[in-house]
Target: LysR family transcriptional regulator
Amino acid sequence: MVRPYLPLNSLRAFEAAARHLSFTRAAIELCVTQAAVSHQVKLLEQRLGVSLFRRLPRGLMITEEGLALLPALQDSFDRMADMLERFEGGHVREVLKLGAVGTLAVGWLLPRLADFREQYPFIDLRLSTNNNRVDIAAEGLDYTIKFGNGAWHDIEAEALFEAPLSVLSIPSIARELSCPEDVAHQTLLRSYRADEWPSWFETAGVTPPPIRGMVFDSSVLMIEAALQGAGVALAPPLMFSRQLAAGELEQPFPISISKGSYWLMRLKSRSVTPAMEMFRKWIGRMAEETRAQLGN
Model:
């Protein structure tokens, strides 16, 4: 059927009547008379050469032909409605799907999102978190922010900033740590990266003790355990600046190690949308400010 001759009024009437199984309720929805809806449906049936409804004393029963037509119409109308709703203030609202490591999302990204919303109110950011293991394609993400070295297959990665790790603990434990050797006698809260604590002790000039104990899949969870007095954590102070500023956590020593950077990533096969480009430039500015703060 040629597009300019699509019977849009008849199709709308049929779709509404099929949802309600009533010409009367469809007419109320469409702000027309019951007779007008019935007439439009009859025109469509004549054009298609099939019956779309069986008229019953109390309502309608959709036929097999009607059931075959209905899903395509509902999908089309839903997509058109969604597209029209995306226009706002002279812009097309765009959806941006972002995945991020939970630690960065909570400790760094969320405090800056008000700025993003203010600058780009027409972009609907949909944020999901992970523990640094994510399948961008399977989750349908436009971007993800991941920690590592930037070498990922079929991925375009843009470095954001490093997040050095330091010893963090509650004040009562920090008072027991007069020198780095004292850390070895504490319960060491650790991530799944087994080399972090040994690297910190070596940087501090201390022979690493046996590393045992609880393993956490995110620094957010590890710090929560530290806040409850479960031990000392090795985590990025940058991501827990609020807890440090509030005095809930302390950083007993200036010693830190770096095990990688945060990277903004997308599939090379993913075409860059205007919303993606705006977000890339915005987060690049935020990252530049953070690098300046860290002195690198």
Notes: The first strand starts at residue 53 and ends at 56. The radius of gyration is 29 Å. The chain is about 45% helix and 20% strand.
